[in-house]
Design goal:
Layout: H1 6-24, H2 38-53, H3 59-64, E1 67-92, E2 95-122, H4 125-133, E3 137-138, E4 145-148, H5 150-155, E5 165-174, E6 185-189
Parallel strand pairs: 4-5
Antiparallel strand pairs: 1-2, 2-5, 2-6, 3-6
């Protein structure tokens, strides 16, 4: 007979609780069933790009970026142990250069679920090369990524943009405060 301690129960039950929470949340349910096709990703990215280009805050970023990686919808959920996942496309010069997913796990004081979009602006050719040459780029290693909140976005100008990569979240829905990027991995995919 197996003796269960609080620690062994926690390590077995908390991940299951996080998945149950995520699966039972209406904003997560439809997107976890299957990977998106190239056509679906393109449509979602085009809609997100239009939405972003109509906002005044990221205009300086669009004007200077070498390429923009857009994840229209990243699903994040958890109960102490959490995870996030999304699919998107890298746009360079108005054309799609590749498709990527973003995935990560987090631990700590978290509970809830949310969906949000993420746009990453690659300001230098070196930062873009780091993304394209990596067999999965883990944020926090390689080029510096600066997450801009709404206040910082408003103050971003062509003279203040000096970092290799900027990240902007948009369209947040749900019960979590923000999207966590450190330790998140971005990997190139080949959707059907």
């Amino acid at each position: 007979m197996t003796h269960h301690t609080r620690r062994t129960l926690a390590t077995r039950l908390l991940p299951a609780a996080a998945l149950t929470l995520a699966a039972g949340t209406p904003l997560l349910r439809p997107t976890l069933a299957q990977a998106a096709t190239r056509t679906e990703i393109d449509a979602d990215v085009a809609a997100a790009l239009t939405r972003l280009q109509n906002l005044p805050q990221p205009r300086a970023l669009f004007a200077q970026a070498r390429a923009t990686l857009i994840f229209p919808r990243i699903i994040q959920g958890g109960f102490v142990v959490g995870g996030q996942y999304g699919e998107g496309a890298l746009l360079e010069g108005g054309t799609t250069r590749g498709y990527f997913n973003i995935a990560g796990a987090s631990f700590g004081l978290l509970i809830g679920a949310q969906a949000s979009g993420l746009a990453m602006f690659f300001m230098t050719q070196e930062a873009l090369r780091a993304l394209m040459n990596a067999e999965g780029w883990e944020i926090g290693t390689g080029p510096t990524v600066v997450v801009l909140d709404r206040g910082a976005q408003i103050n971003a100008t062509s003279t203040t943009l000096r970092e290799p990569v900027y990240a902007v979240t948009f369209n947040q829905e749900g019960l979590m405060a923000s999207i966590a990027l450190n330790g998140t991995k971005i990997t190139q995919i080949r959707p059907s």
